[in-house]
Design goal:
The chain is of the alpha+beta class. About 20% of the residues lie in helices and about 30% in strands. The strands form 5 sheets. Strands 1, 8, 13, 20, 21, 22, 23, 24, 25, 26, 27 and 28 form a 12-stranded mixed β-sheet that branches. Strands 2, 3, 4, 5, 15, 16, 17, 18 and 19 form a 9-stranded antiparallel β-sheet that branches. It has a 3-stranded antiparallel β-sheet with strand order 6-14-10. A hairpin with a 5-residue loop joins strand 21 and strand 22 (about 440). The protein is globular.
């Protein structure tokens, strides 16, 4: 079978793809404001006007159909604004409040990393030990046996060599999460050498939550409750919807409809719930503020290590230990994380030099949610507002990308290889033609064009029609996303069976140029 029509297939990478829900809810508001703390810093607005931000939030909700948004802002260890808009549960007419727990999606990662660092502080885990030492006999198998082992630090900063991964399990469907040991057996292959490539992978943080459980002797959920949420006074936070929070948590919505509850094979990457007030308190702890009711679960040295640029492959804008650090965020250094998945848009941002933490939580998906914190910060920081305005000036529209891939001469020709799934291999070949076409030919008869082909940071990326016939990937129709690194006459990396609502399941790929 041949599929040679040139189409534009948008890669369904959940952590980056932001959907827009249909339908509009009338926003309701539960507000709690606090007097601003006096400060001598001229760069800070003493009495910020949040009226334009409120209008922006209501506009985003109206245009996108997101049922609710909750925000919180803290400065100098004090919450100066916390407010909620809309419905935590539309059907039950439950209003959102600053204490409503929201699904955080990937903001779970800095929280999980904090839990792991508690064990580091106790000497029970060492960041630069091989991660296999903590897997109870499991192994993150390398594609190339000659590469060195990956460390715990490599896993935490997404440079262990693990490929793209996520997998959801919905309450109204029969598929259920396998044990972590089985997930590691199927998908825990290190396709790149440690420290060679930054590749965001939820599986890595699923492995971290497994390490927390193995080392502590508690479940991951219980450990976070006892050693992170409790000591930090985060009373409306839990892994999944914790006991006592069942009637309080915000329902997740897509296209105006509630999303059936779902779990993951990587809870440490995605499963935490927290309220806006709790999340900004978590941010204040990471800024070094000593809050009433909070215990110092990490030393100043360990907190600093989590955002040390040496932990990242890209010091100016890189991923450290649970946090993304940006050297110039509209004129300020920022420490942040976002989250996005069905029914979720979240963001937490810290500006350490200004001792500011801000979070935005929504129980639906909309691109506009991710810019609300910009407006909040602009309301309190004139320099931030000026830089943001300057960078938002219209720029000349770049020409559309060429439909053809201009392959360098080293790629031209036929490359033969295999997709190595957990239950067998799939022979295939890739043909780079001088006219720009890139053809993928599977030995089962499928021939298709590789679309959206580009070289990005030395990596060949592209998307095509096709399927991986493992039990997991047969759950839903999917496309194939390739990410390959060239080394001489060899390419290696991974291909992901990607279906946004369900999974991105990656298998190792090796190709050799045909002589």
């Amino acid at each position: 079978m041949k599929i040679l029509t040139r189409v534009r297939i948008v890669p369904q990478i959940l952590i980056l793809t932001l959907g827009v829900a249909a339908g509009v809810s009338s926003p309701t508001r539960a507000a709690q404001s606090f007097p601003a703390q006096k400060t001598e810093r001229a760069a800070i607005v003493a009495s910020p006007d949040f009226g334009p931000v409120r209008a922006k939030i209501e506009s985003v909700m109206k245009e996108s159909g997101v049922p609710s948004v909750s925000v919180a802002l803290a400065r100098d260890g004090r919450i100066i604004w916390a407010e909620s808009f809309g419905w935590a549960n539309v059907e039950k007419k439950i209003k959102a409040t600053p204490d409503t727990p929201y699904s955080l999606a990937s903001i779970s990662k800095p929280i999980t990393a904090t839990g792991l660092m508690v064990l580091v502080g106790r000497g029970l885990v060492k960041l630069d030990d091989p991660v296999d030492n903590y897997l109870g006999g499991g192994t993150l198998a390398p594609l190339d046996p000659a590469v060195p082992p990956a460390t715990v630090r490599h896993v935490l900063n997404h440079s262990a060599g693990l490929p793209l991964h996520y997998q959801f399990f919905y309450a109204d469907e029969p598929a259920r999460r396998p044990p972590m040991a089985e997930t590691i057996r199927r998908y825990g292959i290190r396709v790149f050498a440690p420290g060679e490539v930054y590749q965001y992978s939820n599986l890595g943080y699923g492995i971290i939550d497994d390490i927390i459980a193995r080392v502590s002797g508690k479940t991951y959920a219980r450990f976070l409750r006892d050693e992170v949420f409790g000591p930090l006074g985060l009373d409306h936070s839990s892994v999944d919807i914790g006991p006592g929070l069942e009637g309080l948590a915000a329902e997740r919505y897509e296209s105006g409809q509630p999303v059936p509850f779902y779990a993951f094979d990587h809870p440490g990457a995605s499963a935490v719930y927290a309220s806006a007030r709790d999340l900004v308190r978590f941010g204040m702890f990471h800024l070094g503020n000593k809050l009433d009711g909070q215990k110092p679960i990490l030393s100043a040295e360990l907190l600093a290590a989590m955002t040390d640029k040496q932990a990242s492959l890209a010091p100016d804008k890189g991923y450290c230990i649970g946090w993304r650090v940006e050297a110039d965020d509209n004129g300020f250094r920022s420490v942040s994380h976002t989250g996005g998945m069905p029914g979720v848009s979240t963001k937490l941002r810290l500006l350490p030099t200004e001792n500011i933490a801000v979070c935005v939580l929504a129980n639906g998906r909309a691109a506009g949610v991710y810019a609300i914190d910009d407006d909040i910060l602009a309301a309190v920081l004139p320099r931030y507002a000026e830089t943001l305005k300057a960078r938002q000036k219209p720029r000349p529209t770049p020409p559309p990308p060429s439909a053809k891939f201009n392959a360098p001469p080293v790629l031209l020709g036929t490359w033969e290889g295999r997709v190595k799934t957990y239950d067998g291999e799939m022979p295939f070949e890739v043909v780079f033609e001088a006219d720009g076409d890139v053809r993928v030919r599977f030995k089962d008869g499928l021939e298709t064009l590789l679309n959206n082909v580009r070289l990005n940071w030395g990596m060949l990326e592209g998307v095509c029609y096709g399927s991986i016939r493992t039990e997991d990937a047969r759950r839903a129709p999917h496309v194939l996303q390739f990410r390959l690194k060239l080394r001489g006459d060899r390419m290696y990396g991974f291909v992901s069976a990607s279906s946004e609502r369900w999974f991105a399941l990656s298998s190792a790929v090796e190709l050799k140029k045909k002589v």
